[in-house]
Amino acid sequence: MPKNEFALAFNEVLEEKQLAKDIVVSAIESAMVSAYRRAVSASTAQHVEAKLDPDTGLVTVYAEKEVVEDNIVDDRTEVLLEVARKVNPEVQLGDMIVVETTPADFGRVAAQTARQVIQQRIREAERSNQMQYFERQVGEIVSGLVQASNAQSATIGLDMKAEGVMPNNQKIPGERLKLHDRIRAVVMEVKDGTRGPQIVLSRAHRNFLRRLLENEVPEIYHGIVEIRAIAREPGARAKVAVSATQAGIDPVGACVGIKGVRIQAIVKELHDEKIDIIQWDQDPIIYISKAISPARVNGVYLVDNEGARTATVVVGEDQLSLAIGRDGQNARLAAKLTGWRIDIKSLTEASSDSLKKLQNNAELAALIPAAVEVIPQVQEILAKKPRIARSCRKSTRCWVSSWTALNAARSRSRKKPPAWRKPAPLPRAQTSQLPHSTCLSIRLVSRNISSTF
User: Final residue of a domain: which of 96, 125, 154?
Assistant: First the structure.
């Protein structure tokens, strides 16, 4: 092959396989050694090496041979003294020396016998290169195209002609991957397989959210804002605790961005997953109070025993369902985020439990006598609370029915305007034309609500 043709073909292989030059040269030289051994039936114990000139494509084979004086029995293992001294003038009879032993028709023989060996060695080098590259990418985000998808997993085409597998439990629930869609995922694990590296990808792991925040928020990437903890239920909700390493930096505002542009980009990537960004605090009471957000917390009481840390969070009656979340999701994520076992109670329930402890524990009652004195007053308030709640619900129902009657009366008293004219606003004077019973009902409801609260 001419010089320029071999160089073009050699460079094309380098570019197609994305391999280093020395790796391809080593694979070709190793294949030539195997071809030489097969061509001359050389022993595996004999040292044989090959050298390739990348510019011309010429291959030179060298073999270790014994120096003899004049009679060569086997030219595969013996060389004449005068030939050996051209390589090393100081060689003596019986010494072993490495000399050139390229066969005359070695180019044609090598082309036939070394083709499979070269392909195998290049394939092995390509797999090894892929393995080393993706081992360094563990925990990082990679991008690829969806090549196939079924009920068990999805196959993602990655860089360097590698393929990654995303199991079904590592997908975001409710997300449908279509063929040829470009997606991003985090590399969870890389294992060496018979057909190349087995790359396990995930979009459901919390590290995927961590890397997305690092990509979207420069302050996190440069270390100005630090991610302290992440709790995530893929596709539903996530909580992220952040803190600033420099004074005067708002970590929550940096993550959210102007008009929420930064966090919205991440929410879109995570299939509209809700993300709560809270500020980490060294005080566990403040930290847990923020972790329960968006619910407003009345108090946090900690019990730190050996091996069990429990936090009792007290919220108002109207905040109880918000603090617990749908199917306990908000409380569950707050517990994962803070590392505390969280017990959420309403203000009434917490007060009742405290009264029982004071009444049943004499030592505790002796420590806080002031609390014992107000027990009757607290009991009286708790007894009235259900009655107040019922009265509020009844007043609300009356207010709704009265408001419905008011709207109905306005509709009856209003004249229907022509279709081509905009309806005129209802004058205030028309309210006096309402039935007497309706106006009386409204005044009674207003008085009842005022007296209740």
Answer: 125
d(CA 329, CA 306): 27
Contact 216, 262 (CB under 8 A): yes
For residue 156, pLDDT beyond 60: yes
Residues contacting residue 139 through CB under 8 Å, at least 6 positions apart: 186, 187, 207, 211
Q: Supply the pTM of this predicted model.
A: 0.68
Spatial distance between the Cα atoms of 392 and 57, rounded to a whole number of angstroms: 94
**Sequence-distant (≥ 6) Cβ neighbours of residue 72 within 8 angstroms:** 78, 79, 80
Query: Which residue from 347, 313, 310 is spatially nearest to 330, judged by alpha carbons?
Result: 313
Same domain, 60 and 194: no
Instruction: Please state, in angstroms and as integers, the Cα–Cα distance from residue 248 to each residue in 104, 213, 256, 372, following that order.
Output: 79, 20, 16, 46
- The total number of structural domains in the chain stands at 4
Give every CB contact of residue 433 below 8 A, 6+ residues apart in sequence: 413
Nearest by Cα to 312 from 351, 343, 288, 357 = 343
Cα 366 to Cα 181, 342, 361, 362, distances in angstroms? 69, 28, 9, 6
Closest CA to 147 of 186, 180, 176, 183: 180
- 26 lies in the same domain as 66: yes
Closest by alpha carbon to 101, among 53, 54, 46? 46
For the residues 14-42, what does the mean pLDDT come to? 81
Based on the domain organization, do 104 and 35 belong to the same domain?
yes
Cα 273 to Cα 173, 205, 270, 276, 381, distances in angstroms: 10, 13, 5, 10, 42
- pLDDT value at residue 163: 92
Q: Is residue 333 in some structural domain?
A: yes
Query: Using the 8-state DSSP alphabet, how is residue 432 labeled?
Result: G
Which CATH number covers residue 161? 2.40.50.140
Rounded percentage of the chain residues whose pLDDT exceeds 90: 41
Query: Bigger pLDDT: 430 or 261?
Result: 261
Phi, psi of 362 (to 5 degrees): -70, -35
In this structure, what DSSP letter does residue 270 have? T
Q: What is the per-residue pLDDT for 358?
A: 74
**Structural domain span for residue 392:** 385-412+428-453
Q: What's CA 429's distance to the chain center, in Å?
A: 63
